[in-house]
Design a protein that fits this description.
This is Glycosyltransferase. The chain has about 450 residues and is of the alpha/beta class. About 40% of the residues lie in helices and about 15% in strands. The protein folds into two domains: about 5-230 and about 430-450, Rossmann fold (3-Layer(aba) Sandwich); about 240-430, Rossmann fold. The longest helix has 20 residues, at about 410-430. The protein is globular. The relative contact order is 0.13.
Length: about 450
């Protein structure tokens, strides 16, 4: 497994490692020292150190810049991570050496699964004997197809009606990212035997089929959700159990909205203030994860502590809690007191929310998030929009937040979304059992790589 060193990507390939290792296949998960540590510490829903079939390989790279995130930047894209992405280029030779070492043990085959933003690192591997490479598309098929559709000049095709008013892809990423992507894309279609999606035919079969046609015969498997559908929760009596879960135990079913914008978003002081007032005015119960975005190395010491309005935490006591450390998102979303999720619509968060039947108040920030929010709100009809992407340069007001929270948590419209979300969650859980479509896809992929 060769992940991109950003939390959402590290997490996806770690969960995929768990799934593949359950077929009694040894898995080697590779990366820089800091990012392997990050992946292990933040794993949730299972303990990767308890799975003897997962082997971690931490490689040294030259030091790289770790600038602080800029909460006041005009674009929310996490530019502070770009030096850490380029640092992974130094993994090309160590990864080759590891594959050579594994091949020397007379293995039948070495299978490499790399994040599709890490093609540079694995470019030499297909030339090695008994080695096959597969690409992990870490975004939704809805997003991937929209990307190709836009490049083709936006033709009118089945499924594209959900792309009405979709933001231009050029507005979602900065120039620095396009330069990095160009380096990775030169290997597309040349080094891989197939493509994997952290998605499910239960969720977006239309777009998976459209992508299959576009890829002209390249094998693809939709084997998500990668996250556990029954996360291993810490015992209620354990002192390791997170405070938010104890608090949720005391709340009514579907009464709490979980507010979290992932690991790559930094809100400016004004945005924090408006969000705080909006949550308070909504009069709904909430858990708000208030952290700054990750740096390229999360273990470097300097971290901005985001300030709330004076006396705020005292004012909302009993109705809301603020979490400033790492929150157990899977367990929070799986808890029956959680009835809504205000989210940036990163693909991991979307998949986790959909898995547990929690509707979304979508507030996209950058990258694939604006299009994922379209998938959630327009195609799946499992959520609503907090602030339209077209108004991203405006401050999201407390009124916008208040209205979105009230609609999602305390209106017939929100109840309908919750019912649709619960129905889809049940279908996903059924799909991973024997005879289900997800199980069939996973079995098909394992049979293909072990043939």
């Amino acid at each position: 497994m060769v992940p991109l060193p950003a939390q959402g990507h590290l997490n996806q390939l770690l969960h995929l490692s768990r799934l593949v290792s359950s077929y009694n296949i040894p898995v080697y998960y590779v990366g820089t020292i800091a990012h392997i540590q990050q992946a292990k510490i933040r794993a949730h829903g299972f303990d990767p150190l308890n799975i003897t079939n997962i082997h971690f390989h931490e490689f040294q790279t030259p030091s790289f810049e770790t600038p602080l995130p800029n909460p006041n930047a005009s674009n929310k894209f996490p530019n502070q991570l770009m030096p850490s992405f380029y640092a992974t280029f130094h993994l090309r030779e160590p990864v080759c050496a590891l594959v050579r070492e594994l091949l020397s043990k007379n293995l039948k085959k070495v299978v490499v699964i790399n994040d599709n933003l890490m093609n540079w690192v694995v470019q030499d591997l297909p030339e090695m004997p008994n080695t096959e490479c597969y690409s992990l598309n870490s975004t939704s098929a809805f997003f991937s197809y929209s990307f190709l559709w836009e490049l083709k000049g936006k033709p009118v095709l089945p499924g594209t009606e959900y792309y009405e008013d979709i933001p231009s892809i050029l507005d979602c990423f900065p120039t620095e990212f396009w330069e990095y992507l160009k380096i990775q894309e030169q290997f597309d279609g040349k080094i891989h035997c197939g493509e994997l999606y952290n998605s499910s035919r239960v969720i977006e079969s239309l777009y998976l089929d459209l992508m299959s046609k576009e890829k002209d015969g390249m094998k693809q498997w939709a084997i998500g959700p990668f996250n556990p559908l029954e996360p291993k929760e810490t015992s209620k009596d354990s002192n390791k159990r997170h405070e938010s879960l104890h608090w949720l135990d005391k709340q009514e079913q579907n009464s709490v909205i979980f507010v979290s914008f992932g690991t790559t978003t930094s809100l400016c002081d004004e945005e924090v203030k408006e969000l705080a007032i909006g949550l308070e005015k909504s009069e709904q119960k909430f858990i708000w994860v208030l952290r700054d975005a990750d740096k390229g190395d999360v273990f470097t010491s300097e971290v901005r502590k985001v300030q709330l309005p004076e006396g705020y935490e005292e004012k909302i006591k009993g109705r809301g809690i603020i979490v400033r450390d790492w929150a157990p998102q899977l367990e929070i979303l799986a808890h029956n007191s959680t009835g809504g999720f205000m989210s940036h619509c990163g693909w991991n968060s979307c998949m986790e929310s959909i898995s547990f039947g929690v509707p979304i108040a979508a507030w996209p920030m950058h990258s694939d998030q604006p299009r994922n929010s379209q998938l959630v709100t327009k195609y799946l009809k499992l959520g609503l929009t907090v602030r339209p992407w077209t108004r991203r340069d405006e401050l999201a007001t407390s009124e916008m937040v208040e209205n979105a929270v009230k609609t999602l948590m305390a209106s017939p419209q929100g109840d309908e979304m919750r019912k649709r979300a619960a129905d889809l969650s049940n279908a996903i859980k059924k799909s991973v059992t024997d005879g289900g479509v997800n199980r069939a896809e996973m079995d098909s992929f394992i049979a293909h790589i072990t043939r």
